[in-house]
Design goal:
There is one protein chain. By secondary structure, the chain is α/β, with parallel strands linked by helices. 37% of the residues lie in helices and 21% in strands. It contains seven helices and eight strands. It has helices at 2-9, 11-18, 39-51, 66-83, 90-100, 113-126, 145-158, and strands at residues 28-33, 57-62, 101-106, 132-136, 161-167, 189-195, 200-207, 217-220. The protein has an eight-stranded mixed β-sheet with strand order 3-2-4-5-1-6-7-8, sandwiched between helices. The protein is globular. The two termini are 20 Å apart.
């Protein structure tokens, strides 16, 4: 089946083996990258991976409208369908994923833990409870550890995992940038995306409480951000 094929090539499958089962419900995850490397595409890919496993997703966008995000999902999905030679009715598959995905747009300055709780509660009333929340457009470096702990508390109460992204200066990420170090304890998993030679490198900077993350790295296709076939 096409969905199984894509799920198998998701970078989350390999990372889950090393990241103590993945991010986990009630935890915050962060992916960092330089401008244009693929941070938003990776977050959408995380959401699509969940949707293809029939799990409900809430996508929160800060700075874009709902239609923009919906169009972005459609573009990413069509690229996946084209490059992986989809062998099932991808229109029906996309419709089913659309049913499980909700998109909410907020101004950057007004979104906080209270709004996150309200959004999660409303989604639980309207339909299936989101198991994954993607937050795109958040200026993470401008938040405090106390604020992010409130986010984590909301995630725990809703039994959801929350992924967000942060832009950093430059394409090479040797370690967690200085502006994000005060927030390191707020995230259970931190990943970095870097452009490589014909691929995008994804590696872990933090894996829960593990001190050794050196083996947690994979190469991704630059178009689909799926695992490069060996």
């Amino acid at each position: 089946m096409y969905r199984r094929f894509l799920n198998a090539r998701s970078p989350l499958r390999l990372l889950e083996k090393g990241l103590h089962g993945g991010l986990g419900s009630g935890n915050l995850g962060l992916v960092i990258a330089g401008p244009g490397v693929g941070k938003t595409s990776f977050l959408v890919g995380v959401a699509l991976d969940e949707l293809m496993r029939n799990k409900p997703v809430l996508h929160i966008t800060l700075g874009h409208n709902v239609q923009h995000v919906r169009d972005y999902y459609n573009t990413v999905f069509e690229e996946l369908a084209h490059t992986t030679q989809l062998d099932e009715n991808h229109v029906a598959a996309r419709a089913e994923m659309d049913r499980l995905r909700r998109i909410r747009a907020y101004p950057q300055s007004s979104f906080d833990a209270k709004r996150l709780r309200e959004a999660l509660a409303l989604e639980a009333e309207l339909g299936p409870r989101p198991e994954l929340v993607v937050v795109d457009g958040l200026d993470v470096a401008q938040r405090t550890a106390a604020e992010l702990e409130e986010w984590a508390s909301a995630a725990r109460d809703a039994h959801a995992e929350v992924w967000m992204g942060a832009s950093v200066a430059g394409e090479r990420i040797a370690s967690l940038p200085a502006e994000l170090r005060p927030l390191e304890g707020s995230f259970s998993v931190i990943l970095a995306l870097e452009p490589g030679d014909g691929s995008v490198a994804l590696r872990a900077l933090k894996d829960h409480d593990s001190r050794d993350v050196s083996a947690l790295h994979v190469a991704l296709d630059p178009k689909t951000l799926l695992l490069v076939r060996s």
